[in-house]
Amino acid sequence: MAKLKKGDLHLLVGTRKGGFVLRTDARRMKWIVEGPLFPGRQVHHFIRDSRDGGDALFAATFNDWFGSDIQRSTDGGRTWKPTEGGVRYAEDAGLSVKCIWNICPGRASEPGVVYAGVDPAGLFRSEDGGATWAEMRGLNRHETRPQWNPGAGGLIVHTIILDPANPARMFVAISAAGIFRSDDGGTTWIPRNKNTRADFLPDKFPEVGQCVHKAVLAPGSSTRLYQQNHCGMYRTDTAGDSWKDISRGLPSRFGFVVAVHPRKPDTIWVIPAVGAEFRACPGGCLAVWRSTNAGRTWQKQTRGLPSRNAHLLVLREAISTDSGNPAGVYFGTETGQLFATRDEGRNWELVADFLPPILSVEAATL
């Protein structure tokens, strides 16, 4: 990969046939596509570690024959190394890691710490920059685990959120088990799913069993989170102690992605789908829905997006925002299109086409 320059923006794109990097300068007008990296492997998540100058990269890879691993680079992607021994459950777990879904670099105050979420649902931690990994048993052996069940994509820890202001607090989202919060650095975990629905269960509001599709933490907050659920859009202002349904005004309660503005905690973007039985854009119109008041009302954003015969799906990791002013938003589809906006969704453009099915998109500005 080409060397980064100050102000450059990179999009790290994970697909079913490798990883791609899209580069542009601060104007975000023209893009250069590089790749594929890791050809022949699925890349479920591809992310830059912004600590220590931003030269560290991580890619969660999977191959039907060779299994899963985390590839890591400390030189901006010029060279890569696998883990030392893989990401594996302890022998007494009775579980075997199928694939790795999410990688989350630790806080700036935690040099070398990296977290990973896997299928079947588990959370792992590395203290040496991703070389070796160990289970976080407080979650992986949680007393409610017998009540966790796989969604269509598997039983997965797909979201890891670190509270930047409170080093003891973190959140995970599990499909299908719900949101869990730790207030002691990951030693113990408490389900935090009050008022979120699980329409597919006899008890529609259980303690655990909800199918969270994605969750994000609002900027500058330790208590405001949003989640796109199998059964609606929700917001919490109490760090998950209770959730408020903010689905009203959207064309569907179902979808996979949610993104939050890098500076405005009330501004979010979602891309609804018809439902579990037909996972595609309502009416064949690809539309992004934005709220600027924390989900009280929604505006449909379609300029530059296909409005007919666009039976597309955007998967849970495949949306990201940059730190520009105005903010850029980027998302990729399961059919290989990558769309971008430089003006917070007023206008969209197709910046890449004919990529393999896109699994993840991460924006990183130097």
Describe this structure in words.
With 366 residues, the protein is mainly beta. The protein is 1% helix and 39% strand. It is built from one helix and 27 strands. A four-stranded antiparallel sheet has the order 3-2-1-27, with no helix packed on it. Strand 8 and strand 9 form a beta hairpin. The chain is globular.
Which short descriptors sum up this protein?
366 residues, mainly beta, four-stranded antiparallel sheet, 1 helix, 27 strands, 1% helix, globular
Topology:
Blueprint: E1 9-15, E2 18-24, E3 32-37, E4 42-49, E5 56-63, E6 67-73, E7 99-105, E8 114-119, E9 122-126, E10 134-135, H1 137-140, E11 156-162, E12 170-175, E13 178-182, E14 190-191, E15 212-217, E16 225-229, E17 232-236, E18 244-245, E19 254-260, E20 268-273, E21 288-291, E22 299-301, E23 319-321, E24 329-332, E25 338-341, E26 349-352, E27 358-365
